[in-house]
Design goal:
CATH topology of the largest domain in chain B: Gyrase A, domain 2
CATH class of chain A: Mainly Beta
Oligomer: heterodimer
Order of helices and strands of chain A: EEEHEEEEEHHEH
CATH topology of chain A: OB fold (Dihydrolipoamide Acetyltransferase, E2P)
Number of domains of chain B: 2
Mean pLDDT of chain B: 95
Strand order of the largest sheet of chain A: 1-2-3-9-8-5
Largest interface: A-B, 27 and 28 residues
Number of domains of chain A: 1
CATH superfamily of the largest domain in chain B: Probable tRNA modification gtpase trme, domain 1
Number of strands of chain B: 22
Shape of chain B: globular
Low-confidence stretches of chain B: 4-13
Chain lengths: 129, 377
C-alpha cells in the first residue's frame, strides 16, 4: 500500500501533516477507511476546543461501524473540514486529502513521538499477522 | 482510531469455517471478516453500492454458512408441531415455507428459521449459522423424547445462494435453463425443485428473488454464471442494511434466549389460539408482555447502533428501552433502528437516544422502512 512519506502517523491510524505555518492537519489513513468501509457520518471537534494528545476527539461512522479518532498531538482546533458534513464519502475516496481538522500544536515534543511512513508500514504489517 | 459498535472481529484470525464459495469471494477481492466463526465476505468494494444494486436490479449473497437440516420420517409433522411456535399445519401444499421461532420452555427464542414442507415424511429446516450446533443438539434431544426414530440430518453438502432484487428472478431463469417454467408461478414463501436446484421465493432483503439450495460442488460455477448474467456479489454488510430497512429480525440482536417472540415483533409467528401445544407455549401464556419491538427514525445527525439507550416519556413518566439493531439506511439516507421499548410508546412519539455524550431525537415509526425499492416512511 502506498503510504505518503510527507505525512506523520499514529499507531491508531491517524495521519498528521505539518504545515509551513506551524499548524498541523489531521485525518485518518487509507487503511483505516478501508477497514471501516463506506463512511456515512463524521463528527468533528468544534473550532476552539483544546485537545490533549491521545484524547478522543472525533468520530467517524461507516455503514457498519463507529470508530473514535484520537488527537495525535495536543493543540487547539483552528479549522474543521466543512465538506465532510455533507460528503463523508470523501474520506473513502481519498483518505490522505480528506482532512478532518487542523490544530495549532501546543506541545512541540508530541511531534517527536509520531511515526514516519516506514514506521507506520511496520504497524500495518504487524496487524496483518 | 478505535472501533466501537460492530459485531465483526477485525484483526484476530482464529481457524475459521469456510463455505464452498470461499475462494470465489477471495478471487472477487472481497473484504473477508470473521462472522461468528465463519470467514465471510463483508463487501466486495462498496457496501453501499451493493445495497443499491439489490434495491434497483439484482445482487447475490453466499448464505451457505446457514444450515439446512432435513427431517425425515412418518412422525415429522407431529414432531415439528410441538417443536416450533408457528404451526406447521399451515403447510398444506408441498413446497410451502413457514417462518417460525423455536422456543425453550421459558418462551425464550433458541433460533428463528424457515421450514419447508416437501412431503409428509420430509421437511427441510434452514437455521442460522451461529446457532446451528445448538439447534442440532436441541432438535436431536427433543426428537429422542418425542419422536424416536425420526431422522434429523444436517446438510453441509449443500450450498445456499440468495439472489435478490427486482430483476433477480429473470437473471436466475437466464442461468438455469428451463427453470422458469417451474418457478415463475411460485408465490411468495413457496419453493420448487428443478434438477439439482431447490428454488424458494424467499429472502432477507425486502425485495423479490429466490433463495437457492444446491450441491456444494456446483456452487462456484453457479455463482460465476450469475455474475456473468449481471448479478452483483453482495456481502454481509449490505445484507444487514437491507434486512434492517425491510424490518426483519436478526437473531442474537433483536431476539435471543432471554427474550420472547411477543416482545420481539414476532407475535404474528406464534399461534396461541389453536389447541396445539408446543414448547414454550405455557410460558408465553403467563408472561405479561410489557415491551415491544418498534422502529426508530433518527431526526438529528448521527448513526443509531445496537445497545444505545432510548428514553421515552409518556404520562409524565420517563421510561427506558434499548436499540436492538441500528444503522444507516442507504435508501432513506438517514439512520434507522429497531428498538425494544415499553408497550406504552406508540408510533408518532418522539424519543431520545443516548449516543456517546449526546441526546439525539428520534421518531417512533412502524416498520418495515423499505419494501420493493420504495420508502414506506
Amino acid at each position: 500500500m502506498d503510504i505518503p512519506t510527507n505525512l506523520k502517523y499514529t499507531k491508531s491510524h491517524e495521519w498528521v501533516r505539518l504545515e509551513d505555518d506551524g499548524t498541523a492537519t489531521i485525518g485518518i489513513t487509507r487503511h483505516a477507511q478501508e477497514l471501516l468501509g463506506d463512511m456515512v457520518f463524521v463528527e468533528i471537534p468544534q473550532v476552539g476546543r483544546k485537545l490533549k494528545q491521545r484524547e478522543e476527539c472525533a468520530v467517524v461512522e461507516s455503514v457498519k461501524a463507529a470508530a473514535d479518532v484520537y488527537a495525535p498531538i495536543s493543540g487547539e482546533v483552528i479549522a474543521i473540514n466543512p465538506e465532510l458534513e455533507s460528503a463523508p464519502e470523501k474520506v473513502n475516496e481519498d483518505a490522505f486529502s480528506a482532512w478532518l481538522f487542523k490544530l495549532k500544536p501546543t506541545n512541540a515534543a508530541d511531534l517527536d513521538g509520531l511515526l514516519d511512513a516506514a514506521g507506520y508500514q511496520k504497524v500495518l504489517e504487524s496487524e496483518a499477522h | 482510531m478505535r472501533y466501537g459498535f460492530t459485531f465483526f472481529n477485525f484483526g484476530i484470525t482464529p481457524v475459521l469455517k469456510t463455505t464452498p464459495l470461499n475462494q470465489t469471494h477471495r478471487d472477487m477481492n472481497a473484504k473477508m471478516v470473521d462472522f461468528g466463526g465463519w470467514d465471510m465476505p463483508l463487501h466486495y468494494g462498496s457496501q453501499l453500492d451493493e445495497h443499491h444494486k439489490v434495491r434497483s436490479d439484482a445482487g447475490m449473497f453466499d448464505v451457505s454458512h446457514m444450515l439446512a437440516v432435513d427431517i425425515k420420517g412418518e412422525t415429522a409433522r407431529a414432531f415439528l408441531r410441538q417443536l416450533f411456535a408457528n404451526n406447521v399445519d399451515k403447510l398444506t401444499q408441498p413446497g410451502k415455507a413457514l417462518y417460525s421461532c423455536m422456543l425453550n420452555p421459558q418462551g425464550g427464542v433458541i433460533d428463528d428459521l424457515i421450514v419447508y414442507f416437501l412431503t409428509e415424511s420430509w421437511f427441510r429446516v434452514v437455521v442460522n449459522a451461529g446457532t446451528a450446533d445448538k439447534d442440532m443438539a436441541w432438535m436431536q434431544a427433543r426428537r429422542d423424547e418425542l419422536a424416536p426414530g425420526l431422522e434429523i440430518t444436517p446438510r453441509r453438502d449443500l450450498a445456499m445462494i440468495a439472489v435478490q432484487g427486482p430483476n433477480a428472478r429473470t437473471k436466475v431463469w437466464q442461468v438455469i435453463a428451463g427453470s422458469q417454467a417451474v418457478t415463475e408461478s411460485l408465490k411468495l414463501f413457496h419453493a420448487a425443485t428443478f434438477n439439482e436446484y431447490f428454488i424458494a421465493r424467499t429472502g432477507y432483503t425486502g425485495e423479490d428473488g429466490f433463495e437457492i439450495i444446491l450441491p456444494a460442488t456446483g456452487a462456484a460455477d453457479f455463482w460465476n454464471a450469475l455474475h456473468a448474467a449481471g448479478v452483483a456479489p453482495a456481502g454481509l454488510g449490505a445484507r444487514d442494511t437491507l434486512r434492517l430497512e425491510a424490518g426483519m429480525n436478526l437473531y442474537g440482536q433483536d431476539m435471543d434466549e432471554t427474550t420472547n417472540p411477543l416482545e420481539s415483533g414476532l407475535a404474528w409467528t406464534v399461534d396461541l389460539k389453536s389447541e396445539r401445544d408446543f414448547i414454550g407455549k405455557q410460558a408465553l401464556l403467563q408472561i405479561p408482555v410489557k415491551q415491544q419491538l418498534i422502529g426508530l427514525l433518527l431526526l438529528d445527525r448521527g448513526v443509531l447502533r445496537s445497545h444505545q439507550k432510548v428514553i421515552a416519556r409518556h404520562d409524565d413518566k420517563e421510561t427506558a428501552g434499548e436499540i436492538t439493531s441500528g444503522g444507516f439506511s442507504p435508501t432513506l439516507n438517514q439512520s434507522i433502528a429497531l428498538a425494544r421499548l415499553p408497550s406504552q410508546v406508540s408510533a408518532g412519539d418522539e424519543v431520545q437516544v443516548v449516543v456517546r455524550d449526546k441526546m439525539l431525537r428520534a421518531k417512533v415509526v412502524k416498520y418495515p422502512f423499505v419494501r420493493n425499492g420504495k420508502s414506506l416512511i
